[in-house]
Fold each of these.
Amino acid sequence: MVIGAAHVLSHMPTKVERWKDEAYGMEIRDHLERFASEGFQSIPEDERDAWFERFKWWGLYHQRKGQESYFMLRVGTPMGRMTPEQLRTVGEVAREYATGPVDNPEFGEAYADFTTRQSIQLHWIDIEDVPAVFDELESVGLSTMQACGDSWRNIVGSPVAGRDADEHVDVWPIVQNLHDRFKGNDLYTNLPRKWKVAVTGDYRGAGQGDINDLAFEPAVKEVGDESAEGFNVRVGGGLARKEPRFARDIDVFCRPENVPAVAAGLSGLFRDYGDREDRFNARMKFLVDEWGPEKVRSVLQEEYVDYELPTAGEDLRDEYDYNAGRADAPGDYVGVYEQRDGQHFVGLSVLVGRMAAEDVIELADLADAYGSEMIGLTQRQNVIVGDIADEDLSAFLEEPLLEEYSPDPHPFMRGSIACTGTEYCSLSIVETKNRMVRYARWLRDNVAVPEGVEDFHIHLSGCTASCAQPQIADISLRGMKTRKDGDAVEAFDVGLGGGLGENPRFADWIEMRVPADEVPGYIANLLETYEAEREDSESFRSFVAGRDESELADLADPEETSYEDPYLANTKMTWYPYAEDDAMSASPAPTDSNDEPLATDD
Amino acid sequence: MADRILKANAFTTFDLLEGSVEGHGFTEKAPAVLNVRTARRDPDDVTLELELDNVDLDSVPPHADRVTLSSAEARTLATELREAADRIDETNRAGDDGERV
């Protein structure tokens, strides 16, 4: 039995639920186009909260205080997979439309962000430009639909599925099927909250299913004499709200052909039973907390699927190495790898996932020139170029652009992830991306890399919303405030030893409120202790796991160094942290499509 | 170490206050988060929540404290806070006057 969406909306409890009931989903497009043609000020002031919430369904987030009238636009690319033509279009759209009143000192006038869910984010988008942006994106098969909002989000997984020489099931056709089926599908348009799905077919665990609402994980099931390849199903993972959960095993094996039915069943179950009365409690992880995996399985079986669900098969988790903190394998896709067909895919490191628009275009052209048919965005905010022929590989690796976006970067330039931060985000309390860039450079220039360490994962998040996945890194940094020399300054809580893999583990939180300018010194001291005290080639994660709380607290102290932090003051209170006059009162927003201030009644 | 109990983002009322905890035989100081919260759905009360940084505390386990206030109680608290703040301002003004004399 599938219960229609209308059935569960009869209560309309929360404000957001009421807004969604009035208008949501596909129809928002018409309203967006109307507002675009009439200008930002045509959005009635007392309705803006409601409209901004609804716009998310079409991939638009209104930027933070001081940046009124500007939007972040997110493009969802299933499994981060694109063609060079699509990448070029992203670069062109960024160059043309993602420009604001002030340049970013590290990244220039226009840039694209590659996100931890394999999507693309552009900033400073004017609503007047949205129809043109949509047209350009859609002309090459890209879309912002359901990139945000309470619905099926971008499906994540390994972008090299089908090319990877080391995989169990090619999940690309499965993911394409799910994408086509659940994007713009009225039955799943309006869920209680976001719905994040990962489909993993490789031995690396690159889908990072453990932190998703629904995860299909590679597995083998013996049925009689037959050995069936497919997936085990886990539900209710997620990191946000200070309530991290790893997805829980519901003891279901799923053949590839049954993935759509099980996915429809579980997202229908979430739609109908998820908590619409309290958005803080709405995510699937809380329903799994309340019900337990056994009840999720039984309700799925009884109400949402019409075949008998097999019990779980044997998983392949002991082989997972993606972001697993292992000493014997890289935890990302950076580097040169052989494809199934004998060609190569080349993973390029993109520090904090941000690439200048001109570089995006250049990379797309380069990929095209070398005959690549596949660009991949990874969950570690890096980019992959596929299909490089054996005979072209040397020449490709010599391309000047790869000096900046290297397949063989310095370890401290390789493993860093950062969220958007106070540059644009209304939740963050600290500056993030530019600071992480400066941290990485300082570490590269001043700190000896422990022997054998090739990638070292630092995840920097601006608040407890956890968009940079701070709980699953070697070093976790989460924005906070502290007082230093009498002044309130930006700071970080510091966690250690988190990661995914066979036995995922959240970081232990060791330090609180470390002033941002003392974080590099803390990391340097920590790595010195690690190098001195570890046993043989023990990984950092294992080193942390083997120590109790007081030992971890004694590993290192924060320290001022030659590192200088230009963002120590309260960037949340600026209109834009990098503006020459950054006072909120100096903001030109709201502006027209030429970044000129709009006349106001004041 | 335990993670924070309370979330901290740009909507948190105060992410950096000076706090202290006192018990029989111990007093400890620590930075604190203080937040005012109401339910999103038809709120009928106000929650005032406080957490001191657990890494700075030995005497008590990591925790947050909450009190629930009716709208009338919240207004009473707000009034008392405002009056107390006014007294501080008046004292400061008096001090300023004194210096000018």
Amino acid sequence: MNRGRLAKYSLWQFRDFVLEKGISIVIIGLLWGYLQLLPFRMSFSPEMTPQVITRLVTLLAGSLISIAVLIALNGIISTDRKMGYYRFMFAKPVSPVRYYAQLFVVHLVGLLSGILLLSAVFFVVAGRFSIWNLMLYTGLVYIALGGIGFFISAASRHDWVTLAAVWVGARILRGLYGNGDDWRSKAVELLPPVHKIDTVAGSLIATGTAPLQDVLWLGGYGALFFVLGLVVLQRRSLAA
Amino acid sequence: MERLPSVRDSGHSSALVIKFQNVGKIYRSLLGNSVKAVEEFSLEVAEGEIFGIAGPNGAGKSTLIAMLLGYLRPTTGTLEIAGLPARAYVERHGIGYLSELVSINPKWRADRALVRYATLAGIPESRVAAHVDDVIALLGLDEHREKKIKALSKGNLQRLGLAQALLRQERILILDEPTHGLDPVWTQRFREIVGDLRRPDRTILIASHNLDELQRLADRVAIIDHGRLQRVVSTGFDHQRESITRYRIVLASGEERLEEVFPGAEAAGKGEYSVTVRSLRELNSALADLISRGALVSSVVPERSVLEQQFREAVGEPK
């Protein structure tokens, strides 16, 4: 019964995503795409080869998808707690763990829909590329980055800033110590595998394949934090 | 409104008792400071009761309610509803809850907010519209139904909060400062609505600063202060109870006779006097004497209700 009513509620969750996040993501994507496409068009005019288009999509996706995931995950749990919206919702016979697990999936569907729309526009304006490959990449980044974001949102009220700091911090620390041979280089291996996203992006968007180890590490890391987020939701008081 | 499946209908046979057993709640800050919000709190509320919780600001009322909904975990002790841990009960059966601060997404439309809550409450899709229309009519929100939450006044928002609590015929209702922000007309209407909600298999908990409201609505009231249960008061008049009580007597005529019957009566306005008696019996006998001497009494009311008197005894005079 719980699952049934939650499944029906997913339509409201999707509607909220579109109005509060989806439209922003599409607008940012269009502006970002336009700004990136313009110099490429000028450099490679009159004809953009498939290789050029794939390079452009990879370049665009590398930054846009991460920003889109940050927007999608912003306040996924913490907003309800900060604003007190949870009070009426969870006085109903609903499990917060299931509610937010479903919301995570709904936001993934919403994000994929937004990226699909942007891809279609790009496909028409710029030229042919594999939309499917871009969807795969979006899904992977959502799980990798979003899983960590979900955990932070369950544990902290300042999730967006914390997630951005973790993401950027991991990049900086890897840049500083990642190539060394001491304990610090081993320690940074435990940080979010942001560096693998760049490697995977090029390969996944261009060919639809990527080193399995990298994909598993990225997906596994995010999935682990997603599960930890559910544990926090189960154990931590909503009003705390 | 149609009666929805209740706990008992769904095969749960335990009597619906809310049971706090030595419950304590300590808030700890990151710096290690701690505040005891609730201490050694034990209480049982029976099925069919309208039960009040009264206490000064910061007494622990909201913490008790948050624990009852499973939004906070007790630091010590246990809290059960119908034999289940509080949160497990809520997730299985739901509770009709009106919080002191009505927090609903300001971008939502009032009627759509109710549809959302009805969906979460598990009301079958075919009946959602009817349930929403019913509570909108009951709370007089028809002209506001298409407004965004942010456009509602404090009173209308409070009524919307009550509407969502009444969407499903829950067996437990928790109303935290329910008349906060309501005008006198809707305060009176609220009392009628709560009176109509009384059912032998329903428990209603009302936390309020308003002792007059609790005196009118509740069967018993727990008075709490500094997180501790001070006493539980039955709001009915105890005829056997001998205690010094002050009454306000208004006379239409015969004021000159009053001092003979009530020595020490104090004038409190035009034809109004404040008198002190030790019991109801003494009051009645003195009034009979006064009337027999030719005085015409137009009203006699206690200066403080039973609850107010008990509250002041337990908590002290306001500083």
Amino acid sequence: MRKTDSREKLIELMNKYKNLVFSVCLKLTGDYFTAEDITQETFISAYEHLNEFDGSSEKAWLCRIASNKCIDYLKAAERRTTPTMEEEIIQLKDSTEGPLNLFTTKDVLSQVERKCRELPEGYAEIAKMYFVKGMTAKAISEKEKIPIKTVQTRIYRARDMLRKTVRKEDLLA
Amino acid sequence: MSKDYEYFSDEELNKLIESVEADAMAKAPENLEADILSYIDEKEKLQNKQPGNMKIVPLVRTANSGVVEYSLYCAKVFGAIAAAILILTISPFIKWDNAVPDREEVLSHTEIRSREEVLQERENRELLPKIESIVEMIRENIL
């Protein structure tokens, strides 16, 4: 497959399945930014292996890549945490449950919304519109009557602040 | 005890997809496509410039990469501080061939006369012509 064809195919796949892949990652990881990262990795991996795809089901193929990457992430995340004695006992007791916790999109987005409310003034509302309601920067700019560059800068900074909050909670957990 | 994460079977994956589609799907971030395409373009540019073994920086940061980067940064800062302290401690004991001599060395080779000596010398210098002229006068008178 030529590079231009691969690129066009990638764009087609992203247009069709980006929301599905993102939702799968969100469901498995329970974290907005991790889901975003893994979604990007999924499409990059799909682009690099387009030649190996047998053409049977694009949806299942992409979701397979995404779910495998999510599971790899969860394995790595678990290796980073060292459970205390009490936690090990609780885990032993709960061993009948499945290894993966599946999150609902609603729960994850409400967690993101809660974190957005904790952001400083000027960032909270824009972050909520962008991350929770899924509005574009242009739409936010038109609604709030703020220049689009200002909106983009605030989204960038809000993302950074939210990521740090998530990482801090992850380390303290 | 660690949880046993295994990849999904085909049935499990299909169930997952169905449950995601049944639930309200989240909207992917707006910049997702642009970020992916720009990463791919950058990677291809680098590959065109330098084919063969090449290290590509990943687009996304894993959860661990921030901690590793921070640790490396701390190590570099502490290393630089340690090197600076070492240089400051050792350098006075190192004799450099082309080094500028310090004040003590220069003064030790210099003969320094006291103020009184200098004034005495000046006086003698002024006195000498006078003595010479007196001696000349006496000689003339004698002759």
Amino acid sequence: MSRSWHDVASLEQLEREGVVVTRVAGREIGVVLDPEGGPRAIRNRCPHMGAPLCRGSVRERETGSPGRYELDGTRVLHCPWHGWEFDLESGVCRDDTAMRAAVYPVRVEAGRVLVEG
Amino acid sequence: MIDCDIHNQIGDLEEFLGYVSPGQREWFRAQGAMLGQPDYLWPHPLGWHRDELEIGPGGEPGSTIELIQREVLDVHAVDAGLLTGDIGATVSLMPNPYRAAEFARAHNDWLAERWLAVEPRLRGSILVPAQDPPAAAAEVLRLADDPRFAAVLLVGGSERPYGEPRYLPIFEAAAEAGMPVAIHSGGEGLGLSPSSGGAGAPSFYIEWHTLGSGCSIMAHLVSLICHGTFERVPGLKVLLMEGGLAWLPGVLWRLDTNWRGLRAEVPWVDRLPSEIMREHVRFTTQPLEHTNGHDALLWEMLAAVGAPDILCFSSDYPHWDFDPPDRLMARLPAAWREAIMHDNAAELFGPRLGLKAAV
């Protein structure tokens, strides 16, 4: 199936709203803003229970040794329903690697956010 | 065959009191047969013990070496048996920690001299006062060099679940001594222990026996994993005793599921809780649930969480809900028998069992 680039929103809108969702070939794709890595495009459907994944939050993932809370420096998309955490780059669930949400190339050009899907 | 749960009774109170220091002896003597240990509010309606057993000193079955030899070791061809005492198991629920520490020490010395020194097939569990963890750890280390002690014994009823960091010294001492911590159900709702299960005190023994003892074991399992106890003490093994088994897949599936969404709360739990359990925790078999014809389903569920490797046989002699080893063995899948009746316990307790290595 051929893929093409789609204009999703302005960068200014993404920065204002944190997430924008578009529909490409019958599938909802969301673009969320990773504060460190920029825009990330991921399918707006959690592979666990079908939640609108992109309505979750992007958070830095916790780590630590027993009794000590730290942050591990990576960011994850936290599903709004059951809290499962997804890697924004690969779409893989960090704690159940059998679960994966599709991810898509995304770029910003002339102030517009483009997704290839 | 290895029997992980033989309840030897204190038959001769004066013999036992001889091991208590003079300064505390009169207090314990004045408490009568229970020796100041918290007693059950929910007694078995017909008696705690099997009716047909010979009654020994103190009006109790299982109160002499000879009774245990005849009724357990010889008749069932037991290679090694772990003594778990009986009334002493609730020592950690005594309100007075100094009495508790003295009782535990006396019980351990009595066990070593009167039982372990006499019958080489028997191994001891070290009783400790969990309400004073540093004292408990010191008692473990006092006996660590005695190879006849094979485990540290805690009771299911507790002030807080055992993953709480206050209890760490006990687990660290056990690991340092090279022995597992055995947590035996019992004592829930007695002395310092709240009723387990969160719904308040039960009315009947049947309720307590169904839920009280099972719920405490579930709580300790979940607590030890969530607190990262096995990461803090990497060499630690825990034997969960007499809390039932059919619930285990359900609790682990529930914990694994919750971990995927709630791991931020316990971020040091860096892999599936069920994987941590398989590596560090073992369970005794008795009382294995009757399944109303669904044994195949029980085996399938237990296999899903690591059976047979996680199971060790226990008889619970001389209690009423004893599992006879021959009947239990016949019920198990044939391919599981050797592991459950012998090999898993031999690996868990290691050289402290005193078994000759297989040639």
